[in-house]
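Chapter summary example.
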Amino acid sequence: KLQKKLAKLNKRKKEKGTKLRGRGGSPAVGSRSRMEKESKLIQIQQMHGLSMPVYRLVAFLFNFAMYLLVVAFFTGCGALMSIRFFTETGAGVAAAFYAGWGLAQVALAYFCSALISDSRLASVVGYAVVLFGTGFGIMICQGVYADSPLKPEPPVMPAAFLLWPQFAMIRAVFLMNSRCSLMDACVRRLSDVPELRTALLFLYFDAA
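The structure predicted for these 208 residues follows.
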């Protein structure tokens, strides 16, 4: 009876897995997590001796490793195309940003999946958060808190916005990219841009 149940669940996993193939980032992480709970794969693995701390560690390492592969691909492409954002930004600054956003992204995906009971709905909500959250974040950064010659000092985004990981990520990218494109001096150290350091700290805070 247990073997039949396992076979049935594996079939459901394959059917749903085909819909997740080719996706990356928070939507796929959240829908995969929700699917595992829906199909009771976690409970079955627990019956075979898997502990929840080990499961959470393996799931985190897998999702974070997939994220790092995407980062390596785009960073490599940016370096090959000689884009200054990738070639002249300090290695320590870039590493701190990539690690912080990866941790925050995985944490955000699991947080959203915990609030949703259906894997398909989790996927839809995930993409909605990505699309609308990113659009709203860019609008705030470029439309409200962007540097302007009409302003005596560069505006600083309020910390309340940085509590949402997407906004902290977008602000960090905006600050690093503006230094490369407008000021002709990419960020080499976090001390160069105090607001960037604050945004990165919020990424790690949001992940925690």
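To summarize the output: The radius of gyration is 20 Å.
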